[in-house]
Amino acid sequence: MRSMASYEARTRRFSRAEYERLIDLGVFQPGEAIELIGGELMVAEPQGTAHYTAIRKTAKALEAAFGPGWEVRTEGPIGLDDDSEPEPDVAVVSGSPEDYSRAHPSRPALTVEVSESSLAVDRRHKGSLYARAGLADYWILNLVDRVLEVYREPAPDPAAPFGWRYTRREVFDASARVNALAAAGSSIPVSYLLP
Amino acid sequence: MTQAERPVLRRWTRHEYERLIDHGFLAEDDPVELLDGLLLVKEPQHSAHRTAVLLVAKAVERAFGEGWFVQTQSPIILGDRSEPEPDVCVVRGSPRDYVDAHPTRPALVVEVAQSGLRLARGRKAAAYARARIADYWIVNLVDRVLEVHREPARPGPARRHWGYAAIETLGADATITPFSAPSAGIPVADLLP
């Protein structure tokens, strides 16, 4: 079951192809923060100063950790599956910007959401969506508790919103260092990410 | 900061909804209606549902008489973010009065509900109450009763959303008088399939 069973009423779903056509046609308001998640159009978390600062700090830290051959994207679309086009706060993809001039990247090596009011949604819904897509390394920079949550090893779970979840979860506080799966030998101080 | 427990759906305006239709995203006969900014998929039409719609249309047409007309599963406009298509509604005047724009203030709205009962009592009741629809009926096919919703009430200490303050449930042996046709009496049995 791909739908989110918690809704009392079913809404009209959009495919990713339809969503991209809606964008091309200019149906949405300029600058509107929306994402396609499992066929549904979701409103993204409003950007506070701490949220935006965290995105910039994380992007810089990841650029340094991954080095050449990797592209760090902030709030860029990911062509995740046929009915999802999320815009994670930070995503690390292989290659360079030109590689994605015709199609959005689909499988980031690392996906990061900066979470304040969206913490529950980022854990449960986005976590399930990214696990379903097989994304190996998903981080939530939790601004509420000032910790980094690292999610790995996706596996099926019928109770999850999209039928998958991460089975490994580690939490690091500001004094810890973290390594990215795809950047062997990286050791990033969590304090470099927090605002 | 408040925590959202589930994703927040993007709401559509009526203007955007019309653009979706113009661009072919929604066909005229797609089972979708715009309710409070959400593109809701309508309840599938089983034969009992269709029968109830026809029975209700016939009964209310007779009850209201001259100066009114009945439309079934056709759009009405309730503000910038709602363009629902109620199963039955009674509108003042004649169809030609609405050549240029959909009706906005029906005197009576009726939904026939089976699997969509929760939606009819929840989001739909809220949207109709907010639009100050004075008389809203749900033909409840599950329990074979008529639910009559009156007195639109705004959110406050007693309710989180718009809703109706007076809700009455009538069995098949009762008679209902529409709010705007005070001299008529419709046996509830005439509305049930």
Which characteristics define this entry?
heterodimer, A: alpha+beta, 6-stranded mixed sheet, 3 helices, disordered N terminus, B: 193 residues, alpha+beta, tt1808, chain A, two-stranded antiparallel ribbon
Protein architecture, described:
- The complex is a heterodimer of chains A (195) and B (193).
- With 195 residues, chain A is α+β, with helices and mostly antiparallel strands.
- Chain A has a single domain (16-192), classed as tt1808, chain A.
- Chain A is built from three helices and ten strands, in the order αββαβββαβββββ.
- Chain A has helices at 16-25, 49-66, 119-132, and strands spanning 34-37, 40-43, 70-74, 90-94, 110-115, 137-142, 147-156, 164-173, 177-178, 188-189.
- In chain A, strands 3-4-5-6-7-8 form a six-stranded mixed β-sheet.
- Chain A is globular, with a radius of gyration of 16 Å.
- In chain A, 42% of the residues are buried.
- Residues 1-7 of chain A have low confidence and may be disordered.
- Chain B has 193 residues and is of the alpha+beta class.
- Chain B has one domain (45-190): tt1808, chain A (Alpha-Beta Complex), CATH 3.90.1570.10.
- In chain B, the strands form three sheets. In chain B, strands 3-4-5-6-7-8 form a six-stranded mixed β-sheet.
- The radius of gyration of chain B is 17 Å and the shape is globular.
- The relative contact order of chain B is 0.14.
- The mean pLDDT of chain B is 93.
- The A-B interface holds A 4, 6, 8-12, 14, 18, 21-22, 25, 27, 34, 37, 40-43, 116-121, 125, 144 and B 1-10, 16, 19-20, 23, 25-26, 30, 32, 38-41, 116, 118-119, 122-123.
